[in-house]
Amino acid sequence: MNRRQMIITSAGVLAVTATGCATTGATQGSASAAASPVLVGNPLADPWPGPYQGVPPWNQVTVDLLRDALNKGIDAMRAEVAAIVDNPEPATFDNTMLALEVSGDHLDRAGSIFGVMSGNIGTPEYQALTREMSPILSAAEDEVTFNDALFQRIRHVHETAAAAGLTAEQARLTERSYQRLVRNGAALDASGKAELGRFNQALSNAFTTFQQKVVADEQLYTQFTAEADVAGLPDSNKSAAADAASSRELEGWVINNTRSAVDPFLTFADDRAKREVIWRKFVNRGDNGDANDTNATIAEILGLRAERARLFGFETHAHWRMQDTMAGTPQAAMDLMMRVWPPAVARVGALDSPHATSEERVERFATQAMAHAYAVDRGVSGAQVCLDHCVGVVRRELGAQRAVCAALLTAFIEAI
Fold it and tell me: Which long-range contacts (CB under 8 A, 24 or more apart) does 345-353 make?
C-alpha cells in the first residue's frame, strides 16, 4: 500500500514540478519586485492579485482558460530562457543564475492551478486536459534541461564560483542548479537525451493514467441512513455529509471517498465497523481489480523508472533518487530503518498473547492505524510511510512479517 500512496503523492505534484525552473525564495522575491511584471494576457498565468504573491483566481478557472495559461506560460518561459542563452556577455551569476531563478513565473502560476485541478476534478473535460497537457509540460521541462547552451553557461558559473567571489548563498544556488540539471540529464549526449525524453514522456502518460484512476475511485461514496452511523461526528461534518447526500438526491448522509471527508470520519465517528468501511474503501483506491485498478500502471511506472536509472548508470531507481538526499544511498536508508526494526521484533512476543487470535491482532492494529489517520497532518510523514506499508502487511496477513509489522506499528503509534 505504501507504493500506491507514494505514487499518488508523486502524481499530484507532477504537474507543478514540471513547470520549468521557477522557484520561490528571497532571491526571486527581491528580483521580481524590482521589475515590472510581464503580462501574457491570462489571469491564471499573470500575477495574481492580493498579498504574498497573490491568490489564484479560482472563480475564473475553466478548462479552456487553463489550457491557454499553460501554453502561454510555456511560451513565456521559452522566451526567458532564450534571452539568457542569447546574451552575448560571458556567463555570470546575475545574467545566468539569477535570470534563470526568476524565470518561469507564468508557467509556475498556471502549473500550480493545473496541479490542483487535475488532481482533484474528475470530470471528462479536466481528464482530457490532463491527458493533453501533461506530456506537453514534460516536454517543456526537458527542453530547458536539455538546452546545451544554457547548461554550458551554468557550468561556467559553477566552475568559476570561487574566482568570481560568489557569496555562500549564490554559490549554493549555483551548485544545486548545476547538480539538478546533471541529475536530470543535461550532461547526456544527444542519443541519451533522446532516450531520456522518451522515458519522461512515457512516465508522464503513466502518471496521468494512474492519477485519473485514483481520482475516479475518489468519486465513490458511502451512504448512511441511520443517525447512529454518524454518531460522534461534529455538527459541521454531519452537515457536510447531509449536503453530499442531498446533492445526489439520497437520504441520510454520504461520506465521499476523499481525504477531506474520510479523515474527519475516521477521527470522530463512534461506530468502529463504519469507520472500517470508510477506511478500507479509501486505502483501496486504485486496487479493486476493476477498470480503475492501477496495479498494471504501477508496474509500468516501476519498469520505466528502472530503465531510466540504468540510462544514468545507477543500479536502481532508488539509487538514482536517493543520491540527492540526506541518506545518500538506499543502504543508508535501510540502515536507519534497521535501527527501529530490532526493537519492533523484540516486541513480537508480547503480541502473541494466548488470549488474542491472529484475526484479533490484525484488526487491532488496523484499528489503531485508522485511529491515527491524522498523523500526517501533525508532521509524522516518515511514520506514515512505514504505517502505510505495515498496515498493508497486517491486512494481508503475510506470515511472520505480520507480527513484526504489527509491533512496528505499535512503536510508531506510541511515538505519535
Answer: 345/404, 345/407, 346/407, 347/407, 347/410, 347/411, 348/403, 348/404, 348/406, 348/407, 350/407, 351/403, 351/406, 351/407, 351/410, 352/403
Contact between 159 and 93 under an 8 Å Cβ cutoff? The reply is no
User: What gap in Å lies between CA 56 and CA 113, rounded to an integer?
Assistant: 7
Contacts of 388 (CB under 8 A, 6+ apart): 1, 2, 5
Would you state the cell numbers that stand for residue 85, as one nine-digit string?
542563452
Cell matching residue 407: 509491533
Residue 158 CA to residue 162 CA, distance in Å, equals 9
Q: How far is CA 125 from CA 131, 150, 293, in A?
A: 10, 37, 21
User: Of 26-35, 40-49, 117-126, which range is least confident?
Assistant: 26-35
Residue 402 burial (CB count, 10 A): 21
Other CB atoms within a 10 A radius of the CB of residue 116 amount to: 16
Q: What are phi and psi of 253, to 5 degrees?
A: -135, 145
CA distance linking residue 228 with residue 273, whole number of Å: 12
Cα–Cα distance list, 330 to 118, 314, 335 (Å): 32, 12, 9
Three-state helix/strand/coil letters over 385-405: HHHHHHHHHHHHCCHHHHHHH
Helices (H), 251-294: 259-268, 272-283
**Threshold 0.90, pTM exceeds:** no
Other beta carbons within 10 Å of 6: 13
In whole angstroms, what is the distance from residue 167 CA to residue 170 CA?
Answer: 5
Residue 53 pLDDT level (bands cut at 50, 70, 90): confident
Cβ pair 140, 77 in contact under 8 A: yes
What does the DSSP assignment read for 124-155?
HHHHHHHHHHHHHHHHHHHHHHT-HHHHHHHH
Mapping DSSP to helix (H, G, I), strand (E, B) and coil, where does residue 222 land?
strand
Phi, psi of 19 (to 5 degrees): -110, 40
User: Where does residue 243 fall: left (phi above 0), alpha (psi -120 to 50 degrees), or beta otherwise?
Assistant: alpha
Phi-psi region of 397 (alpha: psi -120 to 50; beta: other; left: phi over 0): left
Q: Which of 408, 399, 401, 398 is nearest to 365 (CA)?
A: 408
Comparing C-alpha atoms, which of 359, 414, 412 is closest to residue 387? 412
Which amino acid type is present at position 279?
Answer: W
Tell me, what's the pLDDT at 400?
A: 45
C-alpha distances out from residue 251 to 238, 242, 244, Å: 13, 8, 10
